Amino acid sequence: MMKSRLTLMMLACAAALLAAVSAGSAATAPTAVAVTEREWRLSLGRLAVPHGPVRFNVANFGQDDHDVVIRRNGRQYGASGRIAAGGRKSFTVNLPRGVYYVLCSLPGHRSLGMVSKLTVR
Ligand SMILES: [Cu+2]
Questions:
Q1: Which end of the chain is more exposed for a tag (fewer CB within 10 A), N or C?
Q2: Distance 86 CA to ligand 1 centre (A)
Q3: What share of the chain is helix, strand, coil (3-state, %, to 5)?
């Protein structure tokens, strides 16, 4: 009697621990956002993501070099570095709630149209 109660309690503890571990890993799994660039456009695979880690998978389909930077209120949250024509790069940024600009920072490229908005909710 006593022994079976203990076994039951241990099982309950193990189940609770498992639930906590899987909830933790789900919360930290980054949300992937595809970014495609060409002259003179920057497109996002999704326009809204939950706050937390966001993985930007960038493909430069253009004929010139480009990059991707993440900005909000003048602060830079992440950057891909320069990507050659035909190249790909990925980077992960931890983003709090807000509306961010995803843009190419090479001179003149933003004003030519290489900018999109990403909502982090
Ligand atoms: Cu560019």
A1: N
A2: 13
A3: 20, 45, 35
* Residue 57 included in any domain: yes
| Within a domain: 92 | yes
Ligand 1 center–CA 10 separation, angstroms = 58
91: domain CATH number?
2.60.40.420
Count of domains forming the chain: 1
- How close is the Cα of 31 to the center of ligand 1, in Å? 24
Q: Which one, of 112, 92, 114, 84, lies nearest residue 101 by Cα? A: 114
Does residue 12 belong to any structural domain of this protein? no
Q: What is the pLDDT of residues 71-110, one digit of tens each?
A: 999 999 999 999 999 999 999 999 999 999 999 999 999 9
Q: In angstroms, what is the span from residue 28 Cα to ligand 1's centroid? A: 31
